[in-house]
Amino acid sequence: MAENQVQNPQTEKVIALSASLLEPFQGHPFRVASGEEMEQLKESIREYGVLSPLLVRPRGDDRYEIVSGHRRKAACEALGITELPVLVRNMTDDEAVILMVDSNIQREHILPSEKAFAYKMKMEAVKHQGKTTSCQLGTKSRSDGLLAESSNESARTIQRYIRLTHLIPSILQMVDEYQIAFNPAVEISYLTDEHQRMLKEEMDACQATPSLTQSRTLKQMSQTGTLTREYLHHLLTEEKPNQRQKFFLNQEDVQRYFPKHYTPQQMQQVIIHLLHTWQHKRGYNKDTQER
User: Where is the ParB-like N-terminal domain (predicted)?
Assistant: First the structure.
């Protein structure tokens, strides 16, 4: 039944397929993470079923590649559901990549690394489509513009996200965990892999990360071949005027106290406000502290 319906795109319909026939998208940059959102999705499927069918494309040998719906498949598998509603559509590789990214990039919680690799995949697909349709569509500016049109971010921001794909995995993980800010991370991405590994070792040893200004200096020194481990240690141990002492809160530890749509910046603002309130209730003020 499924085969007859798939052959003619004009009769495209939602059909039921066994989960065992569905394969993840090759190079899928978005993680299927457990947590509160997954539990809510499972509860919704348990009560109402899969409201939105998965989008897949045929891969041959009676198997299908998921373009959109990896989280729904994972939730169904966790619930013991073995047959899923899917919409089968014939797509080129480039079309599938673009649709896969567009269907996920607007999700509420996306890690910087997920955005980075997703934008990179889409950029390459858009450029490839341009080369196969018109020599003028393959330009960098044209590709940047097309990406920006389908997202809420500027072409420059998208390019900076793509730069994060040049970070070694251990530093990229620090970005995902908000241990390194986005802008310094972009500058660090220009360091050679060897210099990045040296930097990671020194950051671990010194329990410190470079500021944006320091990261730009490291970028220049790496590009000129003058960056040394000794300088890295000196830079990371020097006292920063606005960063004399710092500590990090793990986002997972505080996320459960906030509405799920809150961004890290919003959570930080609430925490600072609560600390000010706590300080006031204890009878302290700035003048008292300075005396």
Answer: 15-105
Strands 54-60 and 22-23: unpaired
In terms of phi and psi (left: phi > 0; alpha: psi -120 to 50; beta: otherwise), the region of 161 is alpha
* Amino acid in the structure at residue 195: H
Q: Which of 114, 115, 137 is nearest to 125 (CA)?
A: 137
- How far apart (Å, rounded) are the C-alpha atoms in residues 57 and 96? 8
Tokens representing 10 are: 């004009």
Task: Report whether 196 contacts 227 (CB < 8 A).
Answer: no
| Mean pLDDT along residues 171-196 | 96
Q: Which two tokens stand for residue 70?
A: 């990896």
Under 8 Å between Cβ of 179 and 188: no
Q: What's the CA gap between 190 and 177, in Å, rounded?
A: 20
Helix (H, G, I), strand (E, B) or coil at 156: helix
Residue 239 has what pLDDT?
A: 65
DSSP output for 160-213: HHHHGGGS-HHHHHHHHTTSS-HHHHHHHTTS-HHHHHHHHHHHHHHT----HH
Q: Starting at the edge strand that comes first in sequence, how are the strands of the sheet with 63-68 ordered? A: 14-18, 83-88, 54-60, 63-68, 22-23
SS3 13: coil
Q: Please, are residues 242 and 221 in contact by the beta-carbon 8 Å criterion? A: no
Report the distance separating Cα 174 and Cα 188, nearest Å. Answer: 12
Q: Report yes or no: 167 and 203 within 8 Å, Cβ to Cβ.
A: no
What pLDDT score does 286 carry? Answer: 47
Distance CA 282, CA 277 (A): 9
Helix (H) or strand (E) holding 67: strand 63-68
Taking the C-alpha atoms of residue 145 and residue 143, their distance in angstroms, rounded to an integer, is 5
The H or E element containing residue 233 is: helix 229-237
